[in-house]
User: Fold this.
Amino acid sequence: MFVVSTAAQTTLQLFIDNMDPNAHWAASVIEACNGTTTYAAVCTSAEFNSACSSGAEPITVTEGPSIYIATTEAIYSETSATITETCTLDSARTSASCVQTIAESNYGQGVARTTSFNLTGSDYHQYDVEATAGSAKLDDDGVCSTSGAVGISGMLGLGGAAFGTFVVALAL
Assistant:
C-alpha cells in the first residue's frame, strides 16, 4: 500500500482484482495494524456499466505488502452468495496468486465452488483509491483496535456506490 496525502484528500494505492483497469475506487479505513489494513471499498465508476451497479454492498478488503483478502456478498432474486478471495501478492513482479471461493445458496440449497488463478502483467491492477474516512488510522502505531468504528455503510459517505470486483466469478 502506498499513501499520498494532501490537505483535502488521502489517496491509497491498492491492488484490487478487477477486470477494468480504468475503474475508480473509494474506500474507508476500518482498521490498520500488524502490517495489514482493512478497508470497506466501493467502485465509484467503471467503463463497464455493470461493474458499479447501484446499491451493491461494499467489498471488505484486507491488504498488506504481500496479502490481499476480499469478501463481499452478492444477492440476486433467488440466489445469494458470499465471495471470498485470497491472493499472495508480488508487486515487484506485478503478479498475484489467488484462490477464490463462492459459497452460494440457491433456493435453500448450499453449494461452494473454489478456483485458483494467477493475475500477471496487464491483469494485475493497482488503483489510486480515495480514502473517504478513517485515514487517520493509517498513522496508528500498529495496535489493533476498532474502537469508535462505525458500520461499513456509514463510513463510505458514497450513498450506495457499488463494487466492481468479482464480476466474472458471479456468472455461476
Remarks:
- Residues 2-156 form one domain.
- The first strand starts at residue 2 and ends at 5.
